Each structure stands twice: as C-alpha cells, then as structure tokens.
Amino acid sequence: MVSDLGLVENVSFISPLSQDKVYDKMIASDLLLLPSIEEGIANVCIEAMFCKLPVISTNCGGMEELIIHKETGFIIPIRNEHAMANELIEFYRLSKSRIETIVQNARVKVENQHSIDKMVNGIEEMFRNEDYEASMAQFNTELIDTTEKTSDQELEDYLSDLGISGFTDDN
Q1: Does 84 or 157 have the greater pLDDT score?
Q2: How far apart are CA 75 and CA 45, in angstroms?
Q3: Contact present, 22 and 1 (Cβ < 8 Å)
Q4: According to the model, what pLDDT value does residue 112 have?
Q5: pLDDT of 114-148, one tens digit each?
Q6: CA nearest neighbour of 73 among 93, 95, 48
Q7: How far apart are the C-alpha atoms of 75 and 93, rounded to whole Å?
Q8: What count of other Cβ atoms lies within 10 Å of the Cβ of residue 105?
C-alpha cells in the first residue's frame, strides 16, 4: 500500500526494537501521531511527552485527560483524515519556539501527573476509597451468591466473562 500511494520515501516499517532503541527513535523524530479509534491514556504518548516529542492524537478516549489542545499537544477527532491532515500542516507551520513551549508544557504535565510516585499514590488512594471498598464488598457478595447457585462450568464461564481465569480445582 505504501508503494501504491507513492509514500516509499516517507513511510518505513521497522522490526521490533528494544525500549532504549524506541526512545532513541522518539528523540530523533519530529512528531508522534496517534490516529487510534479507541484508547485509554496511551503509554506511548506519555513516553513521547516525557521525551519532549510533540504529540498529535485523536480524541479516542482518555487522551483528552493527557493532552490539552495546543498547550501540551494536539487533539483531533477520530475517523477524520481531513482534520488529521490539517493539524499536521498546522504543526509544521509552527515556530520552533512555539513547539518548544508545547513540549515543555507536556513534559511538566507528565512529570506532575504521571510519575511512578503519582500513579502508585493514586492506586493506593483508590484502595482506601470507601466507594471502592463498598463496590468490592458488593462484588464479593454477588460472587458468593453466584457460586452457591451455579455449577462449576457456569462459575468458570462467569469468571471468564469478567476476565478472570485460572481458577479451576485440579486437586
């Protein structure tokens, strides 16, 4: 397809790389484009922002929590190739100083909101949250009620639907 579209000089596909080599590629790049249809907060964007690589992303879920349009990166609508093309053109028309301001804002945001300490503290807070404890208690009550009324296969199917596996009694 790359050849059919005349993009051989502009697009390359590479084999899997180590994390260090991925960071080297990021640092050597001009821009990260994330054209996803559905994502949470994409780790690749956090990593790019930490490396001071500008990011253009679709508003594919959680990305608007990470990127403030034209302050820490750029947000475009999903499934809109015209908006994507226009944002790319607009990005390449920005001054170097404006890009530097955006990537510096992005780096600060990532350092403040997505550091390991911040994420660990957030998870710890979630487990201390009364709503979380109440929802887990309700889940456990429903699970116990379900296990008392179902066969082993039904229980295994129920747990599988929840994304839980590996709970078979092979003793």
Answers
A1: 84
A2: 12
A3: no
A4: 87
A5: 777 777 777 777 667 766 666 666 666 665 655 55
A6: 48
A7: 17
A8: 16
Number of neighbouring beta carbons within 10 Å of residue 67: 24
| Start-end of H helices in the chain | 19-28, 43-50, 63-66, 81-93, 96-113, 116-128, 130-149, 152-161
Tens digits of per-residue pLDDT, 80-97? 999 999 999 999 999 999
Question: Would you give the distance in Å from CA 168 to the centre of its chain?
Answer: 33
Burial of 45 (0-12, 13-18, 19+ CB in 10 A): buried
* CA separation for the pair 129, 155 (Å, rounded): 29
Separation CA 83–CA 104 (nearest Å):
24
Structure tokens at 146: 């379900």
Helix axis angle, 130-149 to 116-128, nearest 10°: 60
Return the number of other C-beta atoms located less than 10 Å from residue 72's C-beta: 22
Q: Which of 31-35, 100-104, 135-139 has the lowest mean pLDDT?
A: 135-139
Nearest CA to 114 out of 72, 152, 156, 79 is that of 72
Of 85, 96, 75, 112, residue with least CA distance to 30: 96
> Tokens standing for 155?
């229980």
